[in-house]
Here is the input.
Amino acid sequence: MYELAISLAAVLVFWALAEWRLALLLCLGTAVLQDPLRKLTPDQPVFFVVLVGAVFVAACIGALARGTALAPNVLFKRYRQLAAPFLTLLLLIIVQAFNSYLRFDNPMIPLIGLLTYVLPFTSIVFAYQLVSRQGELSINRFMKWYVVCIALALTTVYFEFSGYDWSILGQVGEKLIIYDEVTGAVLYPSSGSFRASEIAAWHAMTTACFIVLMTFMQRATFTRLLISVIVAVLLIAVGLLTGRRKLVVELTVFVSTYFILWIVLERGVGKLAIIAFTGAALAGYGWLAAELRDGVSERFNGESVNYSFYVQRSEGAFQDVPSRFVELGMAPIMWAYDSFGVFGAGLGAGTQGTQHFGGGGDIAAAAEGGLGKITLELGIPGLFVMGWFAILLFRYLWRIMQAASRHSVRMGRLSFGLFSFLVANLAGFSVATQAYGDLFVLLILSWTLGFLLAIPALVEREVRDRQLAIFEEPPSIFRPKIEVSSRI
Here is the structure.
């Protein structure tokens, strides 16, 4: 099995080198296959988790060889205000990489940290360039194939819950047991063919989000809307078997943000809706923080648990808001500051995966919240630089959505969906980082931002094509000839 995995990875790598425009689909195929292959391989070697990264790096090399620029300055041509915080952040990342190496005397810890910070920047530009060349087709193609492939993979979560004892099922390593404080039940999270239940839950949520996004990009007939709702509900129902309630809350944040943006930008309600959007975002963040303490325990009572316990557990996802917000949103920041001071512990100290290379595991477990992780790795200055960058980026993305909604209904709704997906994941990351250490998850999120940044190019292309269709269309006896003034 080891030889088969290496051979398959080599084929995908060379394919990505030759056809970099297929990189998104090749990475999708790699991500779906790498976890089952790892489970079938003796000792389940950890290098399988980076196979999708190898395929993507090969695609980047192929793109560079064909003259495609992947430097971040490509993005700054439209909005130069982002250059200053980006360069400051990049300098801080480099300094903190040296800080980590000097502190832990282990080069793998800063290298893994560099990978999780630098890879997203490259993949954002990659997605931007891909969409600028291929247009909306590349976005639609990826989302459709993602929904199909991941939906099929998620069926294995149900198979595991049903008692099938296949080699590709189950979590890699020690399986967690969840003690639900609300129902008192002991639950056994199912991960299916994915390496962990956390990853399976994230993909279930993302698939449901993409289905909603694609539905409203087209003309939303009753039949199409009904089918989409049914499929999304089924995906969430399967996702609940992972024992991770956060997917319900993140999907709620996504849907709420999408429709608030639709009301504000497409229907023009104005300031009242903006206030409602802010309140809903804060409430969604609080709800998410409330549910994230999954109650992991070593207790075991030997009794079977039916599906109703998983449903009951999800129903308690919006309780205990104040205490959980403080515990998982703010407390990790203070913990990182008290333990390592203003400048933190250095890059990679709180990154998932460093425990496989002799360090960082206990710290990574303690820095569960995303805000705490940033403080731990980049220090208090990093937290402020990230905030500076996020504010300027939000202003630019807001302009993109405003312009897109004015010129194209389809592009406007696509921008709403992409932005809402990022908001849902930002809320998730800020209080829990487990899934965001996965390379494929990082790639999807950075591709999403790259898609959104490429929306202006898509809108310009659509407007230009619309004007050409008006000016170049031959006159017809069924349609009056259009007179074009010489003043234009």
Observations:
- Confidence is low (pLDDT under 50) at residues 289-304, 475-488.
